[in-house]
Amino acid sequence: MHHRTWLDRAADGLNALLLLVIAAAMVVPFLYIFSVSFSSMEEYLSKDFILWPDRWVTDAYEYILANDKFVKSVLVTVLITALGTTLNLVFTSTMAYALAKPFFGQRVFLFMVLFTFLFSAGIIPTYLIVKATGLLNTVWALILPVLISPWNLIVFSQFFKSIPEELNEAALIDGAGEFTVFSRIIVPLSKPAFATFGLFYAVMHWNSYFSGILYLSNPNLWPIQVLLRQIVVVNDTSSLLTEQTLVEPPPAETIQMAAILLATVPILIVYPFLQKHFAKGVMIGSVKG
């Protein structure tokens, strides 16, 4: 039996301290954002740093939700995230399933995938393509250019290769077609993969803002991150509402923190529902058995 020395205990204590410091560095900013968003104007102006408000107020949230611009932006983001993630999974999984099987010209398709993974067209050529196809000022401009991620496609394909080929052969012998095999056998066995890549794609769509700035000039189509940039980075809180319901609006900083919290919480709520499958899916493609 191994006896722990004082050096082992010191190393464990140092590791625990380091982990506590890292955890605090991650938790404290969220706690600060949460506390400031619920702080009153008097408390915010009188304190330099707030980790827990003395009096809880919802003025910032009332200011944000008084007009439908913020709510409309959230709904646009939900639409983009739901529709985009669904199409991402459909096209990525079907192409990955095809690439997982040997066929004539497979190396050519794999080369094309790897080429786009290593070399991208760039911002201006992509913008010209989006403009030429008539996608400007539509939600499709935020979905179609990122329909398939080369990295996710390759890892997805490796996962499909790990599924025993005997299952496919048995189903084909029984008269099932490729689509039936994919939908009835492969998809149910691939729930961890779909949950993992679905979460990756959903987070990508929810946090995407550069494409919205680039392709959307209509403020009514702005996703939440673009509106959040307008509020936080540009510091334009007045553009959030067309009618102010409060005689004296709350400080701009509390409005910014409330907007950040409202934009962050929805995507955090999704994770617990996918955690069971996500824990299995993080090792996708690492081991082939």
From TrEMBL:
One of its GO terms (cellular component) is plasma membrane. It is a multi-pass membrane protein. Keywords: Cell membrane, Membrane, Transmembrane, Transmembrane helix, Transport. Its main location: membrane. The keyword Membrane applies. Residues 74-274 form the ABC transmembrane type-1 domain. GO terms for biological process: transmembrane transport. The chain crosses the membrane at residues 12-34, 74-99, 108-129, 135-156, 193-216, 255-274. Gene3D superfamilies: MetI-like (1.10.3720.10). It is found in: Cell membrane. PANTHER family: ABC TRANSPORTER PERMEASE PROTEIN MG189-RELATED-RELATED, POLYGALACTURONAN_RHAMNOGALACTURONAN TRANSPORT SYSTEM PERMEASE PROTEIN YTCP. Belongs to the binding-protein-dependent transport system permease family. This is ABC transporter permease.
